Amino acid sequence: MADFETQIKESQAQVSAAQSKISEITSKIEAARAKLDAGEVAVDIENATLEDVHQHTDLMNANIAELIMGLDDVTAGFSKDFEEMRSKTGMESFIGIFSGAKSESMRQERMRTASIDTKLQDLIGKSDIIVKLLQGQLDLLNEQKAKVESNLGTTLTDREAAVHSLEAVRAEIAALDPRIIELENKISVEQDAGARTKLETELATLNGRYNAMVQDEQVQLAKSQTLERYIEKGKTWVDSLTNQAATQLVLINKLQTDTKQRVVLYDALSSSLKTAQQQDVAHRINEIGVKTDQEAQAAMAEAKSDPASEAKAKAANDAAGDAIVAYIKTQHLSATGLTVTFDGASSSVAVYGVAPDQATREKIVLCAGNVAGVASVKDMMSVDKSEPEAQYYTVKSGDTLSKIAEEFYGDKMLYPQIFEANRDQLKDPNKIKVGQKLRIP
Question: What are the DSSP calls for 92-139, one per residue?
Fold first, then answer.
């Protein structure tokens, strides 16, 4: 992250370029609307192309994604920092040659006072800078979308009126056809010159009216087609702005969620530095690149083989249970008397408490079950408000939320229901993991 400032400046330049292109396209669409209001039927809006702006936004999002991955890499690197904190320094090892007790005392004191607050705040600050950048882009997208949608509303009304006028003219033309044919037939058989002249005069009048209506039909048709083309372009642009805004929201949500998880991670790791065993188990609850399952299993194996270490194992289990509770609360889930017990020997947890409703209860249980290293969950919770229990589904290879929605609901477009029911563990509807357990409402 040494070149963070350089990357931020590059991203800011890319955001500025993308915003200019977005505003330019919206301006073209607004100019087309102004020409329509001025009575110019032949409006050229083909220049409102999306290709250029998509190239800019893709480049911008790629650069910002690289920044976010850089933060993730730094976060993952903190596991190494904690390992170094837990291990003895060169001086402590040297003192240990003469006094093992003194060496261990020095190590414990260093671990007790260890802090990564400065590094944590630096990471959070950098994350906030990226969020601010994304939020600015999101605000512009929503502003431009509102402008185009306003124009589209007026244009849709105009086109409806144009279609109505076109249909009325065509109805009148259709009504004149049999009258003209009737007059032509009368003229062909009329023998009296005066009567014939009168009929021909009436026919000429009807033909004149007919021709005027045909001309009006062409004008109304051209206007209707122009409005339709304008509406099509406007809808395409609104869809593009909506998709771009969704991308910004996904990135913002990831950063905000990552920040919360980092705080939980660092709090758990900092408190766990009091004992090595507690640290090993606390590491197991973190999903930010910390892969210490093997160490935790070794600690549990030691506890089973050595009766003297039972107290240490209990402390480690308690720390893990408390950390899982803390993690659940970061997902905005709460229950009265929420308690989690962890058994390292079986890698199982039991969840206790009174949830406000069935959905919250199921989300809490799922949240605990999806923690790395947890093999099974015993649901000991109850609810204030009784509701039907949801179904559960374990993600398989090749699954998507759309595919799962089609299997359970018969309609793949209902996938947002599954996504919303699992927002505590899913940040992007397009990213699910094999083995993940999902709640199907």
Answer: HHHHHHH-HHHHHHHHHHHHHH---HHHHHHHHHHHHHHHHHHHHHHH
155: containing domain: 1-274
* Residue 5 covered by a domain: yes
- Tens digit of each residue's pLDDT (9 = 90 or more) over 70-81: 777 666 666 566
Residue 369: inside a domain = no
Quick: pLDDT tens for 383-425.
886 666 668 888 888 888 888 888 888 888 888 888 888 877 7
HSE of 41 in the Cβ direction (CA atoms, 13 Å)? Answer: 10
Residues in the chain: 441
Q: Is residue 285 a contact partner of residue 268, using CB atoms and an 8 Å limit?
A: yes
On whether residue 327 sits in a domain, the answer given is: no
Angle formed at CA 58 by CA 137 and CA 143, multiple of 5 degrees: 25
Q: How far apart are CA 357 and CA 385, in angstroms?
A: 5
Q: Six-digit token pair at 232?
A: 């099509």
Q: How far apart are CA 50 and CA 234, in angstroms?
A: 11
Contact 268, 286 (CB under 8 A): yes
- The answer to whether residues 421 and 391 touch, using CB atoms and an 8 Å cutoff, is no
Number of domains in the chain: 1
Query: Phi then psi for 131, rounded to 5 degrees?
Result: -60, -40
Residue 177 placed within a domain: yes
Provide the angle, in degrees to the nearest 10, between the axes of the packed helices 276-283 and 193-272: 170
Contact by Cβ (8 Å): 267, 286: no
Which segments of 273-381 does DSSP mark as H helices, in order? 276-283, 293-305, 310-330, 358-369
φ/ψ region of 19 (left if φ > 0, alpha if ψ in -120 to 50, else beta) reads alpha
pTM of the model: 0.43
CB 405 within 8 A of CB 413: yes
Query: In which residue are the tokens 């045909």 written?
Result: 214
